[in-house]
Every structure is written in structure tokens, then in C-alpha cells.
What we know:
Elements: H1 9-20, H2 23-41, H3 49-58, H4 62-68, H5 71-89, H6 97-112, H7 116-132, H8 136-216, H9 222-246, H10 272-283, E1 287-292, H11 300-320, E2 326-332, E3 336-343, H12 348-351, H13 356-367, E4 371-376, E5 382-389, H14 392-395
Amino acid sequence: MGEERSVPAVARRWLRAGEGVPAVTVGCALAVVGAGETLVRGAGPHGNLAAVLLLTLATTLPLAFVLRSEGIGRAGTALALSAACVLALVPFRALTAAGVVAQLTCVYVLTRGGRPRLGGLLVVPYVIVALYGTEDATRVVAVLLATLASAAAATGIAHHARSTALVHSATERAFADTLLEHAARGERARIARELHDVVAHHISMIAVQAEHGRLTTSGLPAEGAARFLAIGDTARTALTEMRRLLGVLREDAEGTDGTGTRRRPQPGLGQLMELLDEAREAAGSTTRLIVSGPVAALDPGIEVTAYRIVQEALTNARRHAPGAAVDVELRYGDADLAVRVRDNGPGPAAAGSPGHGLLGMRERVATVGGTLRTGPAPGGGFLVEARLPVRAEALA
Length: 396
């Protein structure tokens, strides 16, 4: 709205009229007003009222077509209307206020529609008349018209730029939201598949242990055997239902992941050295593993989560801090496992806004009830630090 304040109120109202009122109505209204003004003013210095009336109609009625048409038709009609306005101004000195409004509207419509050069071309004749006109009154009107037309052109260009920016911004936001949602869904599906494999193993062990207890426990009363059998049946039913509900997340029932790669056992901390070796070869930088505390086998879900956090952190370091040295630290505690990945790169400024990798990390850590902190590392670089509970009561 701020750009329109440079245009007089009467012109501003007509600039809006083309959007809210039928174009034919706008053109006819201007023609009637212009004809009335011509009749009141008379035939002018040339004394030919019919010719002046025809010029008045030529400077107003074509606006309806300018407002309704697009492309070459709009441009040609606007040029014809502008030529009629110049003709009415210079030889006949009979340009009406309605014709001025129509001329300004044409300039605005063309520039707002993405034709700034054509809109500027309509201003040029008035600049020429203002500089080289022979009559003072005509030159004054030409100066006024050139000024107002320039303001209308600037307004149209500003509106076009703002509209284009809004469209691009909305498209970029929609694309980013779609990409983020797609990445989140893919990461959740991957987490669910991994947890499915881990939980399925535990449920299978419950069923096996129940069956083993029923068959090997000597002197087991019939009621106890029935309980063991019920436990085994319940575990097998739960396993079947879980596979049925989560099976849709498996892209290929024949054992592939949808990209033609065969499935492998879920990775854990035992495969961490292989991951670090791959990172060294890919990045050509120093990658160290630091382990402290009593090393112990952890719940498979915790190990998968820790492995994926290190994997994603190494990928981010390779992408945003190529060549930077990376330290991977595992600190085993009584209640939790601390996973720290730090690089000596430029820090968060180079990484830009949080991406899909950090989103995946947070989803994984939240799944096992842990905490995650990411941000600048003390002394420079980027730090990813996760704390994952290892006790059974913490995981419950």
C-alpha cells in the first residue's frame, strides 16, 4: 500500500477499479465522464467537436480491453490508447481528466503485469513533449502526465516484484515443508523397522523360553503348563500382530529395502570402527574413537540409536565441514551412554538452518527416552551430544 501513496487519490481509485469492477463498466464510465467534460469545454482551438469527441472515446473506451485482455492484445491496445492521448494533448489540446486516468491505468496495468519496458515506453512521449513542446500549457500538462505516469509505473513494478516474491516464497515454503515431511516420514519408517527387528527378537525369545519352560520343567502341574502355553501363544500372537501392523514399512517383501540393497542385521556399536574407517576414506580427514567407562553390551535398540547418531553426525561433518577432524566419544555410565561427536570445522554458521539429519537424530533419541543437544562446541566446531538410558527401568 505504501507505493500507491505517490499517486493521487483519484488515480489510485481507478487503479483499483480494474480489479473490483467489470472492465467494460470502467471503460464506459470513463468514456461518459470524458465526453461530458469535452461537451462542457467545447471543441477547443480547432473548432471540430466531432473529432474531439472521437479522440475522447479513443482515450477512454480501449481501457476496457486493456483490463480484460492479456499478452499482445493488451500491449497493442495500450499503445493505441497512449497514441490517442498524445494526439489529443498536442494538436487538439483536448485531453480530458478521464483520458489521463485511463493513461495512468494502462501504465500501471502493464508494469504490474510484468511489462516494465512497455509501461516505461508509454511515458516517453510525454517526456518529449515536456522538453520540446512549443506551448507552455501543453508542456505543463506533459510534465504532470510524465510525473504521474512514472509514479504509476513505479507502483506497478513494485507490486509485481512483491507478488512475484510472495509466490516464490510460498513455493519455496511448500517445497521445504514437503521435503521436511517426506524426510521425517522416511526417518520414522526407518526407526520403526529397526525397532521392529529388535522388539521381534525379544518377543520371539519370550515365546521360546515359555515353550522351553513348559517342556523341561519337571513336576510342573497342569495349571503351570497351561500358563506357560498361554504365555507362548500370547507372545506369538503379539509378534504376528506387530509384524502385520509394521510390515507395511518394509518396501520389499523379498528382503530388499526398496533400492535393491539386501537387508543386513541392524548395526550396533560393534560396527562402529567400520563406520569410522569409511568416514576416514570418504573425507580424507582424521576421525578418532574415544571410549571411556566399563564397556558393556547394551540393549539392541540403544546400540542401533547410538550407531545412527554417530553415522548422521559424521555425514553432517563431511557435508558442512569437509576436511575437519572429528572426535567420536562413547562414555559408558551406570545409568546412561553418552555419545559425543565433535568436529573442528567452522561451526553452526556453515551448516545453516537445522536439516533433516538433526530431525532424525531427535526422533531416534526421543524413541528410546534419551536427550540430544546440538550446537557450537567449546573452542569452535560443531558438537552433537546424546545421552541414552541403558537401565531397563529407564527404558520402560
